[in-house]
Specification:
The chain is of the alpha+beta class. It is built from three helices and five strands.
């Protein structure tokens, strides 16, 4: 199986999210590991991802502890686009 290419969205909110995460190096490792494992074999993690509400059905979420990763994927071109990474109570405010 071909793995997906990981792309980070050019988004000021994602940049802010990553700056906040810099403080917690252990959590960054877990999030990075989860994204890389998902990119290698998305079918293996299908039970750990969910589509967002009908308005944003092209977006998915993945849980890593108290953090959520909001992403979209292009199955045809094998691309995984990360849009937001943040805490559960903060991540959905400005989608």
């Amino acid at each position: 199986m071909t793995s997906y290419k990981i792309i980070f969205d050019v988004n000021p909110l994602l940049k802010r999210d990553l700056n906040i995460l810099k403080k917690n190096k252990k959590q960054i490792f877990h999030i990075k590991d989860k994204i890389e494992k998902y990119a290698q074999d998305p079918n293996k993690f299908i039970s750990q991802t969910q589509k967002l509400a009908p308005k944003q059905e092209w977006l998915y979420r993945m849980r890593v502890g108290k953090y959520r990763i909001i992403f979209s994927k292009d199955d045809w071109n094998k691309i995984l686009i990360i849009h937001r990474i943040g805490t559960r109570w903060d991540i959905y405010k400005k989608l």
